[in-house]
Design a protein that fits this description.
heterodimer; A: OB fold (Dihydrolipoamide Acetyltransferase, E2P); 4 helices; 9 strands; B: Gyrase A, domain 2; Alpha-Beta Plaits; 3 domains; globular
Chain lengths: 129, 384
């Protein structure tokens, strides 16, 4: 069964959000990495830039397919995880730790209320299974 | 997924028990992977993997006219087959366009088994029947589509020879005569017993590794699958899905119908000229293929490797000439990240003047032209 940590928020499109003050860290869930399997390439937005919630802002490529990653929140991207570009398999092995994608300065913290809590996200992925 | 419309192989329940992730392939519900494409791929390269290939079709061609009929319908020279031998061959239109690529085995002197692609069964059967119509009855030929009653699996990898004999005790009862199936040489096929049921075992595959393919009655498939999994477990045998089957064959540059081959492509264009016998006499497609062999082709299948780390190339991505002046040359037919080499690889068609090994090219990956280079086939070579 996929891991769904209790301290995170989730997007329906399988990204997770860890909130620390006004900064959110974004990655993809254990369920998502399991569905993709064998992540071989991660493309992150190169320059620092502003993104809107729901905007496609990264691409994850597995052996089988390419998948767009949608930012769950709006804001300015502060930091990219270079490790995940060098070692894409971190997305599979540590989706909630070393496999994070980027950190973002929230421009509209009210958007967090639109995200799923762990129970809701688990219900979504188990409904799909 | 359209439930109820997809076909299932005799091993469907086994795939579910093993946690296989099921996808649609050529109208069938098949496992794409059990754990990971990369893990399964590397298991086949280093130890062993077990594939369900029951979706493939089996057509029996029998009778005193079978040899002559097949030699007029297929491109390779079937007269080269002794009883108990198989060969890769193709079936073409008069235009040279490929109807299917297949394996033909001579099981008995007047009995041949054709292993055909799942997605092409109805086209192949219709074509064979059409070729048969109007023949004189002097040397009869009988066609029998036994695809539904028959299952098949492939057990592939360098360690398979260490555990296959106890699964299918010899000596063989037909085909190539051997005491143990491990004595079969490449492309040989033998009839052996499995729990008192006659099955066919051949030393063939689609992975570039040593291995065997097994053709048996559908109702015996699950018992054979379980027996092999049990026997191979101590040697590192893993069940492997269509995902690994695809990455393994792409590394070897083996064509897949619908990708490298179709009715608008000839075997010569696909680089399969060695499976087209010009010396054997007339066959369907002979005129066009002979001319292409003599005068050359308009497109040629290349293999390529990405130059640097990149997103994997995928089928239908554009292939461009190198540099600012480079024009669009063709399309990728198969592409993936090579699990063995850790880099993007693929195949595609380009004009022959751009097909030389070491030609720099660019693959358009999601809008970005990314450097690659034409390489020799196969892309992966075993290091012993």
């Amino acid at each position: 069964m996929s891991s769904v940590p209790a301290d995170l928020k989730y997007a329906k499109s399988h990204e997770w959000v860890r909130i620390s003050g006004n900064v959110a860290t974004i990655g993809i869930t254990d369920h998502a990495q399991h569905e993709l399997t064998d992540v071989v390439f991660v493309e992150l937005p190169l320059a620092v830039r502003k993104v809107k919630a729901g905007e496609s802002c990264a691409v994850v490529e597995s052996v089988k397919t390419a998948s767009d990653i949608y930012s769950p929140v709006s804001g300015e991207i502060l930091e990219l995880n270079k490790s995940v570009i060098d070692t894409p398999a971190l997305v599979n092995s540590q989706p909630y730790a070393e496999g994070w994608f980027y950190k973002i300065q929230l421009s509209n913290p009210a958007e967090l209320d639109q995200l799923l809590d762990p129970q809701q996200y688990r219900a979504q992925i188990e409904g799909a299974a | 997924m359209i439930d109820g419309k997809l076909r299932r192989t005799p091993l469907f329940a086994a795939h579910q028990r093993l946690g296989g992730k099921l996808i649609e392939f050529g109208g069938w519900e098949m496992p794409v992977q059990y754990t990971s494409i990369v893990d399964e791929h590397l298991a086949v390269r280093k130890a062993a993997g077990l594939f369900d290939i029951s979706h493939m079709g089996e057509e029996l061609v029998t009778g005193t006219g079978a040899e002559e009929f097949l030699n007029r319908t297929l491109t390779n020279d079937i007269r080269k087959l002794a009883v108990g031998q198989g060969q890769y061959t193709l079936m073409c239109h008069e235009t040279g366009g490929v109807i299917d690529d297949l394996y033909a085995y001579r099981l008995e002197s007047n009995s041949y088994l054709l292993i055909i692609n799942a997605s092409r069964i109805s086209e192949d059967v219709a074509w064979l029947e059409k070729q048969l119509a109007g023949r004189d009855a002097q040397n009869p030929v009988r066609l029998q589509n036994s695809s539904d009653a028959t299952g098949a699996l492939a057990v592939q990898g360098p360690r398979v020879g260490e555990f296959i004999n106890p699964c299918f005790p010899g000596p063989s009862l037909g085909g190539t005569r051997v005491d143990h199936v491990s004595e079969l040489k490449k492309n040989q096929v033998a009839k052996v017993l499995f729990q008192e049921c006659e099955i066919w075992v051949s030393r063939t595959g689609y992975t570039g590794e040593d291995g065997f393919e097994i053709v048996a009655p559908a109702e015996r498939m699950e018992a054979i699958w379980d027996r092999l999994l049990e026997a191979g477990h101590p040697y590192g045998l893993k069940p492997a899905g269509l995902g690994a089957r695809d990455t393994l064959r792409t590394e070897m540059c083996y064509p897949l119908y619908g990708h490298e081959l179709d009715e608008a492509t000839t075997p010569i264009e696909a680089g399969l000229g060695s499976f087209v016998s010009m010396a054997k006499g007339h066959f369907v497609g002979h005129t066009v293929l002979a001319e292409q062999k003599l005068k050359g082709v308009g497109k040629q299948l290349i293999a390529f490797k990405m130059t640097d780390k990149s997103a994997p190339p995928r089928s239908q991505y554009a292939i461009w000439g190198s540099g600012k002046e480079g024009a669009k040359m063709g399309e990728v037919t198969s592409g993936t990240q090579s699990p063995s080499l850790g880099i993007g690889i693929g195949m595609g068609y380009v004009p022959p003047q751009c097909a030389a090994v070491e030609t720099p090219v660019e693959i358009e990956i999601r809008g970005k032209r990314t450097p690659a280079v034409v390489v020799q086939k196969p892309i992966y070579r075993k290091v012993n």
